[in-house]
Write the structure tokens for this entry.
Amino acid sequence: MTDKKKVLAISGSTRTNSSNERLIKKIAALAIADIELTLFESISELPHFNPDLDNTDKLPSAVIAFRQQIAAADGILICTPEYVFTLPGSLKNALEWCVSTTLFSQKPAGLITASASGEKGHEALQLVMKTIEAKFNGATLLLIKGIKSKIDMDGNITDDKTLQEVQTFTASFVKLLN
Ligand SMILES: Cc1cc2nc3c(=O)[nH]c(=O)nc-3n(C[C@H](O)[C@H](O)[C@H](O)COP(=O)(O)O)c2cc1C
């Protein structure tokens, strides 16, 4: 029996019990045999990115903790809505704090955009993650449109096609981690 892979999950929605957070928990349940998933809870505590602080002795402690969590993870799962046709500012801000590092370089990543529509945000997410050299492929990408009508408040995916897509995505992400 192999050890479970450590995954840090980041939700691009700061809303309590958001659909993206529920989706992360669903994926954690689907992959429970293979993955030990930790939800990054502190995205709202990251200060605005400031190059003057980056990689200096003034690096904010919340950023240091965030970077340590990424470094300790075997892979990253991002589930995010699209806001005004791109990434939510808080997620973009978190990723900006990593641009000067190699933390994401060759780090396996599963990237889900779960939104009302989401195409542009999904493209932007891929471009950012490619730029910081995260390791992902077509099977570890998923766009879920109309998410609010496809997952209930208990995190059950109520749409059969979406459930199948999430199951296939999860299996591919587990494969990428191994
Ligand atoms: C400020 C704001 C901007 C939004 N812009 C978009 C958008 O451009 N495209 C889209 O598909 N949905 C947009 N939405 C709707 C979100 O997709 C929807 O609220 C989604 O369910 C949020 O995910 P959550 O449930 O995880 O918070 C926007 C929502 C907010 C609050």
Remarks:
- Residues 13, 15, 18-20, 81-85, 115-118, 147-148 surround flavin mononucleotide (CB under 6 Å).
- Residues 5-177 form a domain with the Rossmann fold fold (CATH 3.40.50.360).
- The first strand starts at residue 5 and ends at 11.
- The radius of gyration is 15 Å.
